[in-house]
């Protein structure tokens, strides 16, 4: 059973120009480090290119990519100001690490110990969320201080991204079948 989750900073869009709508992504070379981002890039008309984190600066410098989605942490740590001008805070997703425990083992614990474990989990989750928010603020400020323009996404861009996300979810549902539907239903609760 899930005990608690700890998030990473939300993902934003790094580009060499301001992106006002999803159409502005058409034709650009887009960093895709997994199948989901490759699907995303294809859906928005971008050209997906596999680039790992250590290779980001060189990929931008050599023109292999023009845009990427990643966290403020990765942006600041890779000195994104050396190769992009804009960071759009689209909060594409909020990756989480989830700590789980075996239900059977947990139920074998006495009531006092169960309460202590749940209290510790609540404390850890609260601390994790606070750390994520702080990390996001600190790393975004580092980027801003180094000349990256921090952009609040336009309503048109967000609407377009939500449309792409809904399309991707429908594709996932079809591929995942009935087992996936059950999983999704439990997740959406």
Can you describe this structure in just a few lines?
51% of the residues lie in helices and 16% in strands.
Would you write up a description of this structure?
- This protein has six helices and eight strands; from the N terminus they run E-E-E-H-E-H-E-H-E-E-H-H-E-H.
- By secondary structure, the protein is of the alpha/beta class.
- The mean pLDDT is 92.
Low-confidence stretches: none
- Helical fraction: 40-55%
- Work out the oligomeric state of the chains in this entry: single chain
Task: Please report the distance between the alpha carbons of the first and last residues.
Answer: 15 Å
Structural class per helix/strand content?
A: alpha/beta
Query: Order of SSEs, N→C?
Result: EEEHEHEHEEHHEH
Question: Gyration radius, to the nearest Å?
Answer: 19 Å
Give the CATH class. Alpha Beta
What general outline do the C-alpha atoms trace?
globular
Q: What strand order characterises the main sheet?
A: 5-2-6-8
Major β-sheet profile: 4 strands, mixed
Tally of structural domains: 1
Average the pLDDT over all residues and give the rounded result. 92
**CATH topology descriptor:** D-Maltodextrin-Binding Protein, domain 2
CATH evolutionary superfamily: Bacterial extracellular solute-binding protein, family 7
Secondary structure elements and their pairing?
Layout (H helix, E strand, L loop, with lengths): L1 E6 L4 E4 L13 E3 L3 H10 L2 E3 L6 H6 L5 E4 L1 H6 L8 E3 L7 E5 L2 H6 L2 H35 L3 E3 L3 H34 L1
Parallel strand pairs: 3-4, 6-8
Antiparallel strand pairs: 1-7, 2-5, 2-6
